[in-house]
Please model this.
Amino acid sequence: MMDECIICGTYLKKINKFVFKCHNCSFYKSTLKPGFGREIEGIEEVRINNFKKIINIIKKYEENKKPKILEIGSGDGFFLEECKNQNIDVTGSEADKEQFEKLKIRFSNTKKISLPLEKNFNEFDKFDYIVFNDVFEHLENLDLVLDQLKKFLNLNGKIIINLPSSSGLIFKFSEFLNRLGISNFYNRLWQKDLSSPHLSYFNDTNLNMLFKNSGYNLVYSGYLDTVSKKGNFKRLNSTINNKLVCLILSSILFLFFYFQKILPKDIIFHIFEFNSKN
Ligand SMILES: [Zn+2]
Model:
């Protein structure tokens, strides 16, 4: 089956059993089965630091105003927690029923939202920001999703998005190993065989094109950190069983923490604004 690129319409080429690539705009898509949930542990520190960075940028935009924020796929609630600590009006959401009910106990205004929306979904409110923290790349039918999100946005509302980059060092290196026949890192990157695999991989340019096609303009472009100084051992040990290998790799990651500032960036962090006049 030949599929077209959702961004530029070019025919996709097969990379392996489950990955296809557009050779015009470099968009990657997988045929893995979408699902819910998160399974990576040990990255709390880097995530919380990244969330602080996101919140600081929102505060810079808003100065003395009190923006309303909706997070899609709040998972374990770290972003909600950080917003609450900083007295920010935030609504969480989850697609997975079990996770939704767990989250609602801690954050009472959590909603059950699964994207793309079901036909009879009633939008309940409008927001100044919709935030996707490592969630967008897990979704299907992105064109439809971007259209549906407009229902939730106030005038000049913004979408904040962070996701792993296909131009990043980690992706490039895993891809290189995959070409040599060492596929486990590449498969892990796509979260193959985990409950919620990645369905797409973007770079800065094709992500912007996707949003532009749906009437959104890029208003901020930056990056987030991939690794922290702490917690790497635990994170690695959830994938690799050998303690010595984990120790060596986590030492490399410790050094990488300082080098990541100058290397090709692994996490894209963009903000798009919907302008209804487009
Ligand atoms: Zn393309």
About this structure: The first helix runs from residue 44 to 62.
